[in-house]
Amino acid sequence: MPRSFSWKKWARSMLSGKGDSANRSGKQLNSDAELNLPLELVIEVALILGSNYSDCYYTFVRVSRQFKVIMERECLQFLPIRLESPNRIIAFHRFLILRPELAPSIRQLWIRGARSRQKPKAGYSEPTNTTWRQFKSCAFEQMHIINSCTNLVSLGCSFPVMFLCFRFMRGDIFFKHDKLTDLTLFENWNLWSCFLMDPPMEGPNLFLQLTHLTILDGVAPNFPTHLFPLLRYFSAEIYPASRQVALEAFKADKVLEAPLPSNLRRLSQDVNVRLHMVNDSELGIKRVFGEGNRCWEMRVGPPEYFRWWCQRLDQKTYPHDPH
């Protein structure tokens, strides 16, 4: 490979701390001697950055056609794809329409096109008029993206989008997602009751293979624990009856004792449960002892859901160190 590529000089500026991504990754090289790197090493560092930071990836693929091919081949399978607005979702949908061969390379997808109003007393969120407008503006695109990325191992999406993929897309599209074991759900909307009708509705095929389930909302009533036979890790938000009492008990230097919420008590003893209470300051994680020797974990602090999701992708479990 010739050493005259224009991206080599740019990559070195990234490593020297002159680029935004270098500052973000915390890696800086200062001396001219340190910057005099072999081209092969520059490529390797670029691939590492491109596999972990989306801004690095999108910048590198614009440098040259040859390097774009390398980045797509080597980085997409490791790069978490984060789409958090209708405009980004629609743009990414158009990209996959033009480049459908890249969809199987995507393994980690975080896609969120709407926000709901939380109802802490009820324990879950509900849609607003704005939520519906956002949802309808890109619901089809979200379903198409999920349907196309058949090699996903981890997916973050709203409950309504997951439900539409299950019920209204020419059959359950999750039959094609046999590697998907980690699911994060937004916008709960208390739709779990759909699976408890008479006669009972079977859940998506996806539920049968999940090992990790995270709900970025309260669990809501009627959570069907029986639909997740392989589940090993479960996380959701918690809204204690008295927030102040819960905070004082968490801060106290003593053993925490409290039962699991009633809608989670049917989870298998093998399932590791972590419930998160949103708080302005980080107070960490503590073990809670419940009824019948059932232990679970409680985390109190600011919601940093995307960072925790990325950590879990690396560790394949919930990290015990919040930092």
Query: How many individual domains?
Result: 2
Unreliably modeled segments: 1-8, 14-34, 316-323
- Share in β-strands: 15-25%
Q: Separation of termini?
A: 40 Å
The count of helical stretches stands at 11
Mean pLDDT: 79
**Biggest sheet, spatial arrangement of strands:** 1-2-5-6-7-8-10-12-11-9
Order of helices and strands: HHHHHHEHEEEHEHEEEHEEEEH
Largest sheet: 10 strands, mixed
Global structural class: alpha/beta
Count of individual beta strands: 12
Radius of gyration: 22 Å
Query: Any idea what the shape is?
Result: globular
Task: State the share of residues found in helices, binned by percent.
Answer: 25-40%
Could you characterize what this model shows?
By secondary structure, the chain is an alpha/beta fold. It is 35% helix and 18% strand. The chain has helices spanning 6-15, 20-25, 32-35, 39-52, 54-60, 65-75, 86-98, 129-148, 159-167, 243-251, 305-315; strands spanning 81-83, 108-111, 117-119, 124-126, 154-158, 182-186, 212-218, 233-237, 256-257, 272-278, 284-289, 295-301. Strand 5, helix 9 and strand 6 (182-186) form a beta-alpha-beta unit. The two termini are 40 Å apart.
